Amino acid sequence: MENLAERELFTPLREGGSDASNTERELTSFLRKACQRALDLGAADAIPLSATEIVLDERVFLKCLVPVCSFYGRNLMCPPNLMPLSQFRKILADYSAAILIRIENPQGKTTKETGRTGDLSGAWRSADLSINGKAVDQGLDSRYFQALNGAKEKLLEVIERTEAMCFQAGYRFAAGFSAGGCVLCDQCVGAGGSQGCRHPFRARPSMEAMGIDVVATAERVGLELSFGEETARSWLGLVLVA
User: Which terminus of the chain has a smaller tally of CB atoms within 10 A, N or C?
Assistant: First the structure.
């Protein structure tokens, strides 16, 4: 695989790369440093991308409801407790660049049994591990489940530190997004409760929760994702930079 951290970034942002402004050159240089920082923290990939490469799709929200996700309406970091896609689309238009961060999940069996029926329920349980990293039945291999959550916590750590690096460098509108439903607490305080989020500096909405088509966005930068049982899985997060 090519060194994705070195991919050309601002070609689609501005015609005439040699005439790019000092601001763009400074941002390009910073993005490479931030990507390297994420790799040093344990990311498998840290890829700069133009904000125009981030794919939004209304159908992402449909999959929160069909079949209904257990996080829907109960988690502060999930719909409908977040801004609508129409508002996020307007906000995203003000950004020029971002960093896509990938953390490798452990390889292993999702269940103690090797067989699985071919119905929607079984397929969704398998995919739910990739999306949320949460136990959905008692057949899960507990060690594999713990390893999945460990990888997800690593993603949150890398996102938080990368976002902090951006903020300290003067990119005050940097904003990070994680993967799947937030699992920092055994039970979220939930929307409308008297208590605020227990982890405001770590908890982040997922890319999906903002209406981002994660698979299509990953493909734009040369990453292929799969939710198959026998394939390696990854957590993907995003940091909007400037």
Answer: N
Q: How large is the angle between the packed helices 22-40 and 142-168, nearest 10 degrees?
A: 150
As a whole number of angstroms, the distance between CA 136 and CA 140 comes to: 8
Give the pair of three-digit tokens for residue 188.
């979220």
Hey, how many other C-beta atoms are within 10 angstroms of the C-beta on 219?
14
Average pLDDT over residues 115-133: 53
Is-cis flag, bond preceding 48, omega within 30? no
Asked if 10 and 20 count as a contact pair (C-beta separation under 8 A), the reply is: yes
Instruction: Give the pairing of strands 97-104 and 234-240.
Output: antiparallel
In sequence order, what DSSP letters do the residues of 71-132 get, joined into one string?
TTTT-TTSTTSS--HHHHHHHHTT--EEEEEEEEPPPS-SBSSS----SHHHHHHHHHHHHT
Residue 17 confidence (pLDDT) above 90: no
| pLDDT grade for 118, boundaries at 50, 70 and 90 | low
